[in-house]
Amino acid sequence: MSDNYRKNCFKKILDASSVYDIAIKSPIQFAPKLSSKLKNRIYIKREDLQPVFSFKLRGAYNKISKIKNPNHIVAASAGNHAQGVALTCKKLKLNSTIVMPLTTPSIKINAVKKHGTKIILHGDTYDEAYQYAIKYSKKHNFNFVHPYDDIDVIAGQGTIGIEILDQLKEHPDYIFIPVGGGGLLAGISVYLKTVNPKIKIVAVEAEDSACFNLACQTGKPASLKHVGIFADGVAVKRIGLKTFKLTKDIIDYTLTVTTDEICSSIKELYDETRVIAEPAGALSVAGMKKYISTHNIKNKNIATILCGANMNFDRLRHVSERADIGESSEVILGVTIDERPGSFKKFCSIIGKRSITEFNYRYSSQNSAQVFVGIRTTKGFQERKDIISKLKRSKYKCYDLTDNEMAKLHIRYMVGGTSNDAQNERIYRFMFPEKPGELLNFLNAIGSKWNISLFHYRNHGADFGRVLIGLQVKESELGSLERHFSSLKYEFHNESGNVAYRQFLK
Question: In terms of CATH, what superfamily is 418-504?
Fold first, then answer.
C-alpha cells in the first residue's frame, strides 16, 4: 500500500510544474565557508528567495490551482503557509480567509493582509486556530487547505527535489530536511528516493517539537504533550498521517537539535549568505553540523535547505545571545570566589587570555561572592571541560550553567537579587501566550493565595512569553499548589532545585 501511495505521490510531483506560475526555481548555492569548516562540499537550497520568503508557496499553489470550482479558500497558519495561500488566492482571484492565533506577531499579520485576504484571529496556539478554521470552512462549505497533510501540497513541496537533482552536477550523498508537519520531508524524500535510492536522507527536528521522532518510536503519529515555540515554523504537536505514511520507511536517519544549535546555524547562514534565516529555516544546517560531527563525515556532497527567512527583528537579540553557546564557543559558569582583595585578579589569571563575554558579580557575604561569567572558547567542549577542571583544582566552587535553560533565560538578568527573608520559597518557570493583557490573565490565574517573592519576565520576540516566579508556600501546601498549576492552561516547570537559583538568588 505504501509503495503504491509513494508512486502516486511521485507522479503528482512530476505533474506539479504549475507551481512555477508563482514560485521561482530557487538557486542552490555552494557554501565555501561551511564547506571549509566542515570538510565537506556543502550546498544550500535558497527557498528564502521565494516571493513569500518560504517554500510554503509551492504546496499552497499546487493544491489550490487543482481545486475544481473553488468558492472560497480557508487556511490556518501563524506565518508562512498563510502567506503562500494569500498570495496564491490573489493571483488566482479567489476569496480567502486565514485563521491565525491571537499571539501572531503583527509583522506576519500585515504580510498576509497585504494580499487582500480576510484574517480571523482565534486561539492562543496554531492547534486552536486550526480547529476553528476546520469548523468555519465546514459551516460555510468553503475549501480548506491543509498546511502539510495533503497529497497535492506535498507534491508542490516535492518540486524542490526535482530542482536539487537538476541543479547539482553530482547527486548529493546526503540531504538534510527540516521537519514540522512533514510536508517538505515527504515531498522531497519521495522524489529523491524514487530517482536515486542511494541518497541518504536525514530528517531534522527541533528538540522540543520532535513529533516525527515520536511517531517513529510509536509506529504511528502521536501527539506531543508540549511543543517548544522558538522554531515556530516547525512547532507541530503531531506529524501528518499522510506525510508519515510516505516517509516512515525511507528516511535514513532522524535527529534533533537544540535552540542554541539553531541559533548558531542562523549565525553561520548569515556569515555565508548575509541572509537572516528564521529558526525553522536554519534547522537543516544545524542538523547537518551535528550529524557531520557525531558521524565523522568527510569529503561528501551535502545538500541543505534554507527553507524560510520570515524572522521577527526583535528575536535577533535572543538569537545573538544563544548563538555562541550553540557553536560551543562560549561557556557559562557560576563561580564562588573569595571576598577579599586580589581574588578577582586571581580568578581572571586562571581564565588566562580568553575573552570574557559576560561578568555579573554580587557581594554575597564577608567571606565569598557569586560570579556569573561567560567565557569565549575556541576548542569546543574539551576546552569547556578544561576550564572547569582548572577552576576546581584551584579550589573554586564552580557550576557549569552552559546548558541550564533557566540560567540563560532568567538568572543572567537577575544576578544580585538574594533575600534572606523569603521563607518557604518555591521557584517555577512558566510560558504563556504573548498578547496584550495576558500577563494580567496569568497573574489572575496564579491567584493571591500565595505571596509572590520573585518575578522575572523578558520578551524574547517569540509568540510565547517566559516568566520565572517565586512563591512562598509551606510544605503542607505544595500538593495543593501543583494541582492548581496543573489545572491551568500554562506549561510550567518546578525549578526550586536548580543550581543557578540556589547559587545566585537563594
Answer: Biosynthetic Threonine Deaminase; Domain 3 (3.40.1020.10)
